[in-house]
Amino acid sequence: MTSQDRPTPPSALNRDITDSLSALEDSDAEQLRAAASYLETLAAWAESTRDDEQGSDATADASVDEADDADGDVEYPADVPERASVTVKEIAGTTYHYYQWRDGDRIESKTVQR
User: Compositional bias (Acidic residues) at which positions (predicted)?
Assistant: First the structure.
């Protein structure tokens, strides 16, 4: 790529992001690569956060079926209603079951380490 073929930001970006990118245009290659690496890491984090927030009941049920016995019976703690949605997460080798349900106008939740 020659200096005449300088890339331009995608048109889909909002003005604030375009302005931020303009501030980077005169940076050296090392600084640009460091920023790009950070942005890739930030994008992966944003995706994982979005996935955690948008987890569907179907996904949660599939996770529970795999984690519990083969016939798909889920063991709910005594103080958790069977209508609760369940999300299973493994963090640092420890499995957690997150139960969440509605009780009138309130959302109740319980976390159980397995």
Answer: 63-76
Residue 101 neighbours by CB distance under 10 Å: 17
| 60 close to 86: Cβ distance less than 8 angstroms | yes
Q: What is the pTM of this model?
A: 0.42
Q: Which tens digits make up the pLDDT trace of 78-99?
A: 888 888 888 888 888 888 888 8
Domain ranges within the chain, ordered by starting residue: 13-53, 57-113
The C-alpha R_g of the chain, in whole angstroms, comes to: 22
* Cα distances (angstroms) measured from residue 47 to each of 20, 87, 88, 112: 21, 17, 18, 25
Asked if 66 and 87 count as a contact pair (C-beta separation under 8 A), the reply is no
> pLDDT tens, 57-72?
444 444 444 444 334 5
Residue whose C-alpha is closest to residue 83's, from 96, 69, 68, 99 = 99
